[in-house]
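Tutorial sheet, problem 5. The two components below are modelled jointly, 547 residues in total.
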Amino acid sequence: MPLLEVSSLSKDFAGLRALDQVSFSADGGKILGVIGPNGAGKTTLFNIISGIYPPTGGEVFFQGKSLAGMHPHDISHLGIGRTFQIVRPFQNLDVETNVLVAFGHRSYRSLWKSMAPCRRPEALQEVRRLIERTGLRPYAKSLGKNLPLGFKKRLEIARALALQPRLLLLDEPSGGLRYEESYQLMDLIRMLRDQGIGILLIEHNMQVVMDLCERIVVLDHGSKIAEGSPEEIRADPQVIEAYLGKEAEDA
Amino acid sequence: MSGYLVTILITISIYAMLAHSLNIITGHAGQISLGHAAFFGIGAYAAGLLYTKAGLPFWLDVPLAAVMAGIVGAILGIPCLRVRDDFLAITTMGIGFVVEAVFLYIPFFGGAMGIGGINLPSWFGREMTKGEYFILILAVLALLLLLDYRLGRSWIGLAWASIREDEQAASAMSVHVVRFKVLAFVLGSALAGLAGGFYAHFLTFIMPQNFGFGQSILILCMVVFGGIGTRWGPLVGAALLGILPEISRPIMEYRTLLYGLLLVGMMRFQPSGLLGEDSLVVKSFIKGLSRLRQGS
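Model answer (structure tokens):
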């Protein structure tokens, strides 16, 4: 049974088909790249998997269980963590508190447990461990809004990890980063994969995609046009066409 | 203590309770409300009716008033909190108008004449003095602050903070956004109802005008003025804006002008309130302390 199974997923926005019958599956301990030109439906796909919008058609299964009708708070509790393309840390909370929020996923479901103090030493210790692991230690006490972009992206990953996820959805983690920064981030992503977390990665930087991913799904105008290893994708004529446009045949 | 002074102190402490209750909704959970006086009114009317018509004693009618305001808060809050920001402001304002109109036009609630004969509570076989009533209110206020402290350190407080910052990110962190918003709304409404109960027994008669839009705005001003989302800010705001009408009696006609100027000035120089972020009061206090230490 695959960790995540996306089965003929479609999404219409006021008559515009953003996703059209997309199917694929993802496994734990593997990085699956999701690429495609702007407007191909990549972020829409993430938003459906994480429960922000319901699909128009099709279904998503996580560990064999359908996610139909579930809200983002249910899905994140089940073990799907995500980051956002445009980073959204909690601006006026410090890094530790940002991570701690996600750590409460075991408490929020019961009013009784929610009344317990949140800054218990055990919880804080685990939060600090995550902060260490994601390289955020120098900023542990800084407010979310005061972090440099690269560390905001790390913070989003740390927050998602606090959910103890089996699957991570990373929406352009290297977008807007300098070369070294994105390489450091790639190391982090590899480390998470090696711990057995399944990773779905939207990425524009082809270098990053080709280096990191075992398999790649290519979307264009809402449809899946190719799926395969980085070598297969690189050689696929349909992919080349989607990115570079059709060769001028009638010239 | 003179009667006049006690009257002012009681008024301020009831306002402090009220501002504190709004601070839970608007300060902690970040949900604007322009109709908070409605729940103050529901509490006051519930206490008044239970006391005068059902003959319940103060010690029962006031807690019941809080429960009723909380229940109405839950019923109104669930649809209300599915809308955001400016829509929420308008929806809550609408609730305020509807509740005031219900008090005014439904004869059961006494119409424009309101409800009278709601006495101060009795204990030890006699009616409480105003001084004793003031101490009772202070004790309740202390309990509320303790509750606020506990909530602030709990997962509930953290969930509220995350919702205030970014609802979508909060839900991606497994925070059940609607549930925690409704919780804030119910708790804030119930405590406003509690304040309403104390208010009714203090005024001894209540009228719809006590709970109108102007009152909602005044409560919000107290919260903003003192420092929205801080523990002590709403109390400070309630004390300052509560004293202001008394000390500005000689310039009665210009009172609203003075209020307006104060608020504009606040927004310009201390947008987070007197005790909020970058607080001049706190800064100069710390500066003063360190100067004292160096001097000695």
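Marking note: Strands of chain B lie at 122-123, 126-127. Full credit if you identified this.
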